[in-house]
Amino acid sequence: xxxxxxxxxxxxxxxxxxxxxxxxxxxxxxxxxxxxxxxxxxxxxxxxxxxxxxxxxxxxxxxxxxxxxxxxxxxxxxxxxxxxxxxxxxxxxxxxxxxxxxxxxxxxxxxxxx
Length: 114
Description:
The chain has strands spanning 3-6, 9-12, 17-23, 33-38, 45-50, 59-61, 69-74, 79-84, 93-99, 103-104, 108-113. By secondary structure, the chain is mostly beta strands. Strands 2, 4, 5, 6, 9, 10 and 11 form a seven-stranded mixed β-sheet that branches. The protein has a four-stranded antiparallel β-sheet with strand order 1-3-8-7, with no helix packed on it. β5 (45-50) and β6 form a beta hairpin. The radius of gyration is 13 Å and the shape is globular. It starts with a strand and ends with a strand. The mean pLDDT is 96.
């Protein structure tokens, strides 16, 4: 499977963005999908994950984004989304999607100005 992330951009604090990660192949629904981010000069960190439908599409979030970000998936479109609301400057980072344990997409840059 290959992953293609999109939807990043430059926004002001308080705005919203929706990231998308489209997967190729026919096995998307078998993967747990996860968003990570990496801010300048920092390590990559977990943002949110959604389990595969077989495991109930359960969602988990980092404390820093809980209540502001929502992860979802559309298995018919082989796509996972990250709806980001009330963005803050500290959310500035390159956002990456991951399928299963080790399949990474390229990043999409989100910049939040104050």
